[in-house]
Every structure is written in C-alpha cells, then in structure tokens.
Fold:
Amino acid sequence: MLLLASVGLAHPAAQQPRNSKVIFDTDIGDDIDDAYALGFLLRSPEIKVLGVTTAFGDTHLRARLATRFLNAAGRGDVPVFEGPKTIAKSDFTQRKWAEGSPDQAYPDAIGFILDAIRRNPGEITLVSVAPLTNVGALIERDPKTFHKLKRVVIMGGSVEHGYGNKVQPDAEWNIENDIPAAKALFISGVPLYVMPLDSSQIPLEPSRQSELFGKKTGMTMALEELTAEWSAATNHKTPTLFDAVAAAYAVEEEICPTTAMRIEVDSKGFTRKVDGVANANVCLQSKPSAFFGLFMPRSF
Structure:
C-alpha cells in the first residue's frame, strides 16, 4: 500500500501511453551520457520531446551542443532553451564539438517549461539529468504550475551504493551541485522517480559502442565524435550510461522497478532514506539486460 505524504503521493509505476510528452533537462557537454540519453529519447516512438533545456554552468554553450546534436540526428524540429548560467567546476569535455555549432540566441528555459506545463497540465514528464538548477528555478518562480507536471524523473542521488558501486553512499554530483534545489524538489509533492547511483551505473562496453557507431547514421557519427572527445579529455574509454537509465525509465519503467520511500537531502548533498511517509519512488537495482534490450535496438 502506498502512503499519502503531507506534500503529495509516492505514485506507482504505470505504462506510459504512446507520444508521452517529455522535456529533457540536461548538462550535456561534461560527461558523455547526456548525449546517449538524448539520442535514445529522440529515437523512441513512445516519446514526444517537446524541448531540450540546458542547465548548470555554461548553459549557452550546452545549448549550442544540443542544437548541433539535434541537427545531426535529423531532429532540428526539437527546440532548445537556455537555463540560467551558474558557476561550475566541471570540465566541459566536448567544448570543441559544441563550438562547431553556429552561435545564436536561445530563449529562456524556465519560461518555456512553465508555459509548456500550463498548456499541457498533468501531461508532461520532466526528465532532469543535470544539477537541479533549472528545477529549483521553476519551483521558486511558479510552484503551483510546477505542481502540474505529470512527474519528474531524475538521475540523481545515492542511497545504498556510491560511485563504483561501493557499498557506501556518496554525495552524488547532480544533488551536490544544487542542494537547495534538490531539497525543494523532494518536498514539492510532484510525483518523483529517482534513478540514483545504485541503479544507473551501467557501462557501454566497447562491443556495444562498435555496434552503435557501425550504423553510420548522422546521430551515431555525432555520438562517436563526442565520445572520442570525451575520452580524450577524461582518459576513459567506456561511458557509464547514468543519464540514459533515467531516459529509458521514462519510456519503459520495467527496466528499473521503483520502491516508494522517504528521502531527505542533507546539507552535504547526501540523499538519506529515512522513516516517514514516502516522497519519492526510487530504483535501487536496475535490469541491465532489459535496459540494453530497449536501448540498443533503437535506430540511432
């Protein structure tokens, strides 16, 4: 039985209808998993991507990268919006590729998301795979409209396992880099689905990279170039598909079954499971075979 929280419900998983409306909120350009997550959503017929919003750090350069990627994928119809810039210590590993996109002005991401929610109350899934700066701005600007989201799906947090799957939680990047926004989200009452480090550390092994890159489509060639740039900057060869797990959950919830629980965000960015009424649905263990069964056949 699910518990009714004072701020809302921990909602059960349910099969999503075709053409489910999604807004993708991303810090694309640092780690490489954002690009794989976006590519997956673009090739999922169940999903209608209403727009891409960039968050955290140099959101303008992120928007340029997203625009170039969408054009390479043949999806220049998907609009891109720029979130508030912040100070960021992260390394923009795909800067050169992003700078290959013509510079242009981008509309305000926060205004776009709020307008989209007003036009589609109760219908939009916000998939946020970035530090929660945009989410915090939405709640601060118009909490009543934010509450009309269908749900929020995030890659974020660490409950029982940390980085490298060690049996000890960490302050996860997306939570740690805007703790007040994370706190606001977890008490917002909006249906919240969380893919933490526990379930999202799925590697894209070289054999699977070769399979994707071998398709030689506009999107896979862009992914190959971006992966090479990321690899050169980080000295890593195998991407971890953190964000793609959240994207896949928005399409098929069976890849990462969730449990209703109460999560509190502490002052250091840890996401602690505590007693009390549930405020989030958290996936502590994903199904990698089911994930790749969904992820790989998509015609990238």
Summary: Residues 4-295 form a domain with the Inosine-uridine Nucleoside N-ribohydrolase; Chain A fold (CATH 3.90.245.10). The first strand starts at residue 4 and ends at 5.
